[in-house]
Write a structure and sequence with these properties.
alpha/beta; five-stranded parallel sheet; binds iron/sulfur cluster
Amino acid sequence: MAQHQVEGAIPVALTTVDKIVNWGRSNSLWVLTYGLACCGIEMMASGASRYDFDRFGTIFRASPRQAEVMVIAGTLTKKHAEFIRRLYDQMAEPKWVISMGSCANTGGMFNTYATVQGADRVVPVDLYLPGCAPRPETLQYAVMMLQKKIRREPANRNRNVKQKRFV
Ligand code: SF4
């Protein structure tokens, strides 16, 4: 936001619609929780009183229709891949995805027939959190990084990702 003030004149603030929209969006990120394994416990701790995500305007929701950020926390199995994609498709645009922990990022130590080797094979991921398990502070930092990313995007962002075949 640029501000220009002439002596004796009324202060004027100049900005763009993109900046106003993105400012509002980035400060009210509602999260669809997707706790799949131990990382899910760290995600739950993020919403509790010690870390208190609400103060950032980040509120956990249990419905894809009321959320714009999906946090995938834990080991994603192939049986589950179909459902995660369906819930992602039910979220309204614009939407973002955070992959939390090694299992969600790459399958982690579970290089098996049953585990998806990275959540990005099923849904487009915007941020990857390293660790096994990442602490709530890491998720908090990731949300702040996502806020920065959103503020740089055009307000009419529409990802419009086609349905991918998952493995
Ligand atoms: S990354 Fe580690 S803590 Fe997270 S779900 Fe996998 S095994 Fe559990």
